[in-house]
Amino acid sequence: VEGLSRQPGSMLAGVIASCRPEEGDFAAYLERQRANPFVKGFRRVLHVAPDELSEGAVFRDSIKRLGGTGLTFDLVVLPHQIPKAIVLADLAPDVTFVLDHCGVPDIKGGAEHPWREHMSEIAWRPNVMAKISGVVAYADAGSWTVETLRPYVEHTINSFGWDRVVWGSDWPVCTLGGGLSTWVAATHALLSGCSIAERDRLLSGNARKLWRLD
């Protein structure tokens, strides 16, 4: 990926690298990546892992090691796992966390609870940001509309505020919900009543600041 970023016309500015905080060699891995300015943060997909994975001592110690590095950690969790994400955020208050995909709500099932309450709670943590992404993949691919997505996107933005949200394409997973162009169009429809300043912060400004992209 870094090699692709050096090609003429590339828009790649950095990477959120996969990692395994539960493994004992994470400290060495972290030191190697810190030497590479192209790496902006880390990601561990927890919604496909056992719930107790993030509760392990090695995992938690690894997350604490990110403190002071300027590297972020993406939280990819299901609604019932958000309380576990809250614990991580509280254990490492000097680490910036990014909650992916609006907390992975079950939009297809129309389930807003306890997702809604958990989102409000984790948003109280100033070291957690939210990514407005992925929601089309969790809706019914054949029938969702902008209004289907609106309660989930708006609650996320209202909970975190315009200074703590970033937009994400979730490509290629977004193809499960209609594709990238469809998600982009839905995003603009959802933001139709927002100010230019609010839109700019969500779509680029906050990400540039968070991952030092300028």
Task: Walk me through what this model shows.
The chain is α/β, with parallel strands linked by helices. The protein has a single domain (13-210), classed as Metal-dependent hydrolases (TIM Barrel), CATH 3.20.20. The chain has helices at 2-5, 26-34, 57-64, 82-91, 115-122, 146-160, 180-190, 196-210, and strands at residues 15-18, 39-45, 72-76, 97-99, 128-132, 165-167. β3 (72-76), α4 and β4 (97-99) form a beta-alpha-beta unit. α4 packs parallel to α5 and α6 (146-160) packs across α7. The longest helix is centred in the C-terminal third of the chain and has 15 residues, at 146-160. The radius of gyration is 17 Å and the shape is globular.
Q: The biggest beta sheet, please? A: 6 strands, parallel
Query: Which CATH first-tier class would you pick?
Result: Alpha Beta
- Provide the β-strand percentage band: 5-15%
Q: Give the overall shape, derived from the CA principal axes.
A: globular
What is the architecture at the second tier of CATH? Alpha-Beta Barrel
Write the layout of secondary structure elements.
Blueprint lengths: L1 H4 L9 E4 L7 H9 L4 E7 L11 H8 L7 E5 L5 H10 L5 E3 L15 H8 L5 E5 L13 H15 L4 E3 L12 H11 L5 H15 L4
Which structural traits does this protein have?
six-stranded parallel β-sheet; alpha/beta; 214 residues
Question: How would you summarize what this structure contains?
Answer:
The chain has helices at residues 2-5, 26-34, 57-64, 82-91, 115-122, 146-160, 180-190, 196-210, and strands at 15-18, 39-45, 72-76, 97-99, 128-132, 165-167. The chain is α/β, with parallel strands linked by helices and 214 residues long. Helix 4 packs parallel to helix 5 (115-122).
